[in-house]
Design brief:
Layout: H1 6-19, H2 21-28, H3 32-40, H4 43-56, H5 58-106, H6 119-137
């Protein structure tokens, strides 16, 4: 089998993908219902795939393959230019996502404070942890 020159293929990928932003947006518009239907019908396959990945230690192997230097390089190359925009775009989602936890925190009746470093203060921390975990898991 003949494999094309990787450098040329990489350049082609970069050029074509860069010019396809409009096609990407057009294809994604209105696709939410199909995406959700696919998610709803694939729960068992997703779980099996995750278990397979866990068994193969795919997550840590993938991280080890690229390494810490790759992570640092990508953060330096892309992170600075994308971080502020991403945070700004996601601010409303953050508020919406955190609201149930803020409400849970607001409804916690904490036990009385103790002196600095006391078991009473540690208990207050446990009360907060329990409230947040119960909110996340839907436990009473």
């Amino acid at each position: 089998m003949q494999v094309k020159d990787l450098s040329a293929s990489g350049q082609k990928f970069k050029t074509r993908a860069g010019n396809a932003a409009g096609d990407y947006v057009k294809g994604a518009q209105g696709a939410g219902a199909r995406w959700k239907a696919g998610v709803d019908s694939s729960e068992d396959r997703w779980a099996a795939g995750v278990q397979d990945a866990v068994a193969r230690k795919a997550f840590s192997r993938g991280v080890s393959k690229t390494g810490a230097d790759y992570y640092t390089m990508r953060v330096g190359k892309l992170g600075q230019t994308r971080y502020a925009q991403g945070v700004q775009e996601g601010a409303d989602n953050w508020v919406e996502g955190f609201k149930p936890f803020a409400d849970a925190l607001g409804s916690v009746s904490l036990s009385p404070r103790g002196i600095k470093g006391s078991a009473a203060n540690q208990q207050r921390s446990v009360e907060v942890q329990i409230a947040l975990r119960n909110r996340k898991t839907g436990a009473a």
